[in-house]
From TrEMBL:
Reaction proceeds by a ping-pong mechanism involving intermediate methylation of a conserved cysteine residue. This is Probable dual-specificity RNA methyltransferase RlmN. It comes from Coprococcus comes. It catalyses: adenosine(2503) in 23S rRNA + 2 reduced [2Fe-2S]-[ferredoxin] + 2 S-adenosyl-L-methionine = 2-methyladenosine(2503) in 23S rRNA + 5'-deoxyadenosine + L-methionine + 2 oxidized [2Fe-2S]-[ferredoxin] + S-adenosyl-L-homocysteine; adenosine(37) in tRNA + 2 reduced [2Fe-2S]-[ferredoxin] + 2 S-adenosyl-L-methionine = 2-methyladenosine(37) in tRNA + 5'-deoxyadenosine + L-methionine + 2 oxidized [2Fe-2S]-[ferredoxin] + S-adenosyl-L-homocysteine. The gene is rlmN. [4Fe-4S] cluster binds at C113, C117, C120. PROSITE patterns: RADICAL_SAM. It is an enzyme of class 2 (transferase). Its cofactor is [4Fe-4S] cluster. Signal peptide: none annotated. Pfam families: Radical_SAM, RlmN_N. InterPro entries: Aldolase_TIM, Methyltransferase_A, RlmN_N, RNA_MTrfase_RlmN, rRNA_lsu_MTrfase_RlmN/Cfr, rSAM, rSAM_sf. One of its GO terms (molecular function) is tRNA (adenine(37)-C2)-methyltransferase activity. NCBIfam families: rRNA_mod_RlmN. It comes from the Bacteria.
Amino acid sequence: MEKKDIASYSFEELQEEMLAIGEKGFRSRQIYSWIHEKLVDDFEEMTNLPKALRQKLEAAYEIRRVEMEKRQISKIDGTNKFLFCLKDGNMVESVLMKYKHGNSVCISSQVGCRMGCRFCASTLDGLERNLTPSEMLRQVYQIQKITGERVSNIVIMGTGEPLDNYDNFLKFIHMVSDEHGLNISQRNITASTCGIVPNIRKLAEEKLQITLALSLHGSNQEKRRSLMPVANKYELHEVLEACDYYFEKTGRRITFEYSLVHGVNDTPEDAKELMGILKDRNCHLNLIPVNPIKERNYEKPDKKSAENFKNKLEKNGINVTIRREMGSDIDGACGQLRRKTMQGV
Ligand SMILES: C[S@@+](CC[C@H](N)C(=O)[O-])C[C@H]1O[C@@H](n2cnc3c(N)ncnc32)[C@H](O)[C@@H]1O
Ligand code: SF4
């Protein structure tokens, strides 16, 4: 029989589970703390549990391993990129970025992605499977353990579409912000989505305090559709209405992400249309010069034209930044390190 993934149990679920197997309530608090505060991955290390209980846990449960396969450290800004190997041999990428305000970790939510965005390396081989809550959590735990750095911010912007793995993603948010675990403030968590409308609305109902980042990338429905197949299913106006709903329900300002692709979506006309979309919205715009992948011939605009694009929007009152490139000397676009390793390049 397959062992149960105990690190995916929420605090309440673990309490119920321990009572169901005849253990006292306080044991669940101890076990949860070992896994989610002290970050151990072996029952043997849980030294305040009786040996018999450790053996009982070992027989029926597992703390799923997420093992470091590769680590690259940027000489420019100290960014760390990790490739982690999962129990079934699949690999995922995570990144640690060091800022003045604290350490931010970018995690993956799926192995691969089925959304097919044209410029993205994560989707080139489609979706392999969803990550469990424990596999998402352990990316953060491992980075904290390996580097000895305390993680204060989390972005779910690695491989995968979090709202395509909705239940596990939601559980991850609850667990990583749980006071019995790492207790990371939801205000320090950002989840990025390509725009799965029903799940944006569902998430709004949860009234979490996380920031929602919406991958926009097109200044109108046609342009967006040409870059993101998901726009065939959900039109731009529906996506924007869902974002407005999220803001209305949570009071959290939306971040719009816009990958600048030279000659495709960075024209003065695009800036004008983008202004029309954003001017009456309480939001932030993040411009990301596209990170070229060899499978597509998209190019990033030069620095000057990216600045021009930004200035046009700024002059018209849009709150906009160009995202600082982190770790430019280590394997660039998200999903590339994983692909290269899987292909043995
Ligand atoms: C990899 S996605 C993961 C989160 C979610 N699936 C989404 O699309 O928002 C995170 C962000 O990276 C952007 N992105 C993907 N490939 C990129 C590339 N080659 N260059 C720049 N940004 C890219 C996406 O558009 C998205 O805004
Ligand atoms: S940008 Fe996001 S949704 Fe699109 S393919 Fe990449 S990971 Fe998937």
